[in-house]
Write a structure and sequence with these properties.
This protein is α/β, with parallel strands linked by helices. The chain is built from nine helices and ten strands. Helix 3 runs parallel beside helix 5. The radius of gyration is 18 Å and the shape is globular. The C terminus is likely disordered. It binds adenosine-5'-triphosphate (ATP).
C-alpha cells in the first residue's frame, strides 16, 4: 500500500462535485505534480487531503492511519502540512512569529527558524518584519517555511509560483529541489506544465474533478499531458 493513499474521494462545494471519485497513491519520498485547468479540482483535492475540506465520500490514508475524519489541526500533528494557495499568513505577525506557529503541532524533527532562514536566505534580513510588508516571494518563502516547521512527512504545495516573477519562482524552486532531494514526500499543484514535469516523479492531470491522466513524469510526453489537460486524451484513445 502507498505511503499516502487517496481512495474514491468525492468532495463537494454544496451541490457541485469538485472532486469526483479520485484514487491515487504516493510513495514515501516521491514528488507528485497535480496539473489541470482552472476549476479542475486541484485545490479542493489538496484541501481534502489536508483536512481543510471534509469529503462527501472516500478515504485518505497515511500509512496505516485513516485520516478521513481527522480534523486538519490533528493531521498536521500526524505529518501533513499544507501551503495554501494565497499563502494565508498572519500579516501583523513577523516572519519568525509566523514560522513558530508551524511548531504548534509539536512534531519532533530538524526544522528550526534558523534552518528555514538558511533555506531562504532572502528572509534573513526580514526575520522581524511583519509579513504584511513583505514581497510576494518573501511571503511565499515564509508560508513554505511555516509548513516545514511542523516537520511534515507530506508537504502539500498549492501553486507556490502564483503571482511571483520568473526570477523569484526560480529561487523558490531551487529551495524546493533541496527538499525533494532530501526525501520529503511532496504533492504540488503547478500551472507551469514544464516545471511540473521536470520537478516531479509522477504527474496527475485532473479534468472536471476526475483524473484524466496519471503517469510517470519522466516518461510521459508533454503532448499527452496537454491533451489530458484539454480533455482530448480519452477521446483520442476511443475508436471513431
Ligand atoms: P484553480 O487552478 O483555478 O485554483 P482548481 O483546479 O484548484 O482551480 P478548485 O479551486 O478546486 O479547482 O475548484 C474546483 C471547482 O469547485 C470549481 O468549479 C470551482 O468553481 C468550485 N469551487 C471551488 N471553491 C469553491 C467554493 N468555496 N465554493 C463553491 N465552489 C467552489
Amino acid at each position: 500500500m502507498s505511503f499516502l493513499a487517496v481512495e474514491d474521494l468525492v468532495v463537494r462545494h454544496g451541490l457541485l462535485q469538485a472532486v469526483r471519485g479520485v484514487t491515487f497513491g504516493v510513495e514515501r519520498g516521491e514528488t507528485l505534480a497535480l496539473v489541470g485547468a482552472n476549476g479542475a479540482g486541484k485545490t479542493t483535492l489538496l484541501r481534502a487531503i489536508a483536512g481543510a475540506h471534509q469529503p462527501a465520500a472516500g478515504r485518505v490514508l497515511l500509512g496505516d492511519a485513516d485520516l478521513t475524519n481527522v480534523p486538519s489541526h490533528k493531521r498536521v500533528g500526524m505529518g501533513i502540512a499544507l501551503v495554501p494557495e494565497g499563502r494565508k499568513l498572519f500579516v501583523r505577525m513577523s516572519v519568525e512569529e509566523n514560522l513558530l506557529l508551524g511548531r504548534t503541532a509539536g512534531r519532533p524533527g530538524d526544522w528550526s527558524v534558523d534552518k528555514v532562514l538558511e533555506m531562504f536566505p532572502n528572509l534573513k534580513p526580514r526575520r522581524h518584519a511583519k509579513t504584511g510588508h513583505l514581497s510576494g516571494g518573501e511571503q511565499q518563502a515564509t508560508a513554505i517555511g511555516r509548513a516545514l516547521m511542523s516537520n511534515p512527512d507530506v508537504l502539500l504545495l498549492d501553486e507556490v509560483s502564483l503571482g511571483l516573477s520568473p526570477a523569484i519562482v526560480e529561487r523558490v524552486y531551487d529551495a524546493l529541489q533541496g527538499l525533494i532531494a532530501s526525501g520529503t514526500t511532496i504533492i504540488l499543484v503547478e500551472q507551469d506544465l514544464s516545471r511540473a514535469l521536470s520537478v516531479s516523479d509522477k504527474v496527475i492531470c485532473m479534468l472536471e474533478g476526475r483524473i484524466a491522466l496519471a503517469a510517470d513524469s519522466k516518461s510521459v510526453s508533454r503532448d499527452d499531458v496537454t491533451k489530458a489537460y484539454f480533455g482530448l486524451h480519452r477521446q483520442k484513445a476511443e475508436p471513431a
